[in-house]
Amino acid sequence: MQKPGVVSVLTASVSRKAGGLYSAVCRLSQEVAVAGAEVSVSSFADKHTAQDIQAWQPLIPQVFAPQGASFFPTSRAWQRAILQGHPELIHNHGLWLYPSLICLAAHRRGIPYIISPHGMLDPWAVRHSAWKKKIAGLLFENRHLRHAACIHALCQSEAESVRAYGLTNPIAVIPNGIDMPDGQAERRLNEARRRPRRPKQLLFLGRIHPKKGLKELLDAWRMVQDAPGHEQSEWQLVIAGWDDGGHEEDLKRQAGFLGLFHEGGAVHNSICFAGPKFGKEKDQLLRGADAFILPSFSEGLPMSVLEAWAYGLPVVMTPQCNLPEGFVAEAAAKIEPKIESIAAGVSALFQMTDQQRLEMGLRGRQLVAEKFAWPKIAQQMMRVYEWVLGKGNMPSCVITE
Q1: Per the confidence metrics, is the pTM higher than 0.70?
Q2: Nearest Cα to 57, choosing from 82, 83, 26, 22?
Q3: What is the widest separation between alpha-carbon atoms in the chain?
Q4: What is the pLDDT of residues 184-239, one digit of tens each?
Q5: Which structural domains are found in the chain, ordered by start?
Q6: Do 125 and 298 touch, CB atoms closer than 8 A?
Q7: Which residues contact 15 (CB under 8 A, 6 or more apart)?
Q8: Which of 19, 35, 261, 274 is the most buried (most CB within 10 A)?
């Protein structure tokens, strides 16, 4: 097979502002480059770009100053740079934003492109701000989607959402990947899990957004605290992540009303709002946690759950996280994004022994090591690139019906 030439990766942000896409797009781009593609990355600049762009090395993303309205920034300079660079293929991550228009301009020049929606066509996501997305769809997004040479779905559920949206493009089903902590880290991790600590920590780590089910989680946490026989000091809920649209302040008010949180860090808070965590701070947070929860209404394929498993954490999550392998492997407890279901799942987790939780987390660690390692994911994507460019056969991960 021939390797693809220049693959131009488009993403609205190369910083933490992109949430889970930040690490997912970064690591996929790096590993595809290792596999032999010539990768160029471009994006809008934002207030975190200078701090976070180093994580992309050895790739050097080209960033452009956004212009126009804040709700839909544009950049003619960005579009000119892509078209004048004559990439052989474009890989666009995300929907509803200016990179979609760049892809349409490239299509008119005969340049094929692949789209990774990252869960943005899931039913909940389409319903959220539905009128804005309907307008965007009519103006440009539906054409952008229809003209894609291939759509990259992170899981079978997302592929079904693509079809439900009315699209007939070929779909490549390839999950996100994960980097595993080294062997020494694993030994330290297991030792830490065996040391009894109070309070234990149930961790949420991700974008602070209504779709994550955090409002329901707080109400469920109150129910668990009030349950007979529960020791209130035994567990603490840690909510960490980037605040999207002021939702964190809403959650703090709710937690205060429920008597779970007092601004200023009172000693007896059963909820801790830890703020955004990246790099070493995120590593420390994951090492210090005892379990992980994601009560989400909608996901593509959440990096946060893969990271939790990589650190040996037992997980409580919804089917909407699109990781059914976790339930099959008994590495996750299943809940629905409803208060009573979340409370029942959390209570069941608390009733497990430390050893049972440790074994559950290690099953998750084995799962991601076998199925979600980045080099393996990148090789699958390379085969899709080669096929789209007519340099290889259709990979087995591609579905056409």
Answers
A1: yes
A2: 26
A3: 67
A4: 445 555 665 555 566 899 999 998 999 999 999 999 999 998 887 666 568 999 99
A5: 6-177+373-399 (3.40.50.2000), 183-371 (3.40.50.2000)
A6: yes
A7: 22, 46, 47, 48, 49, 51, 52, 53
A8: 261
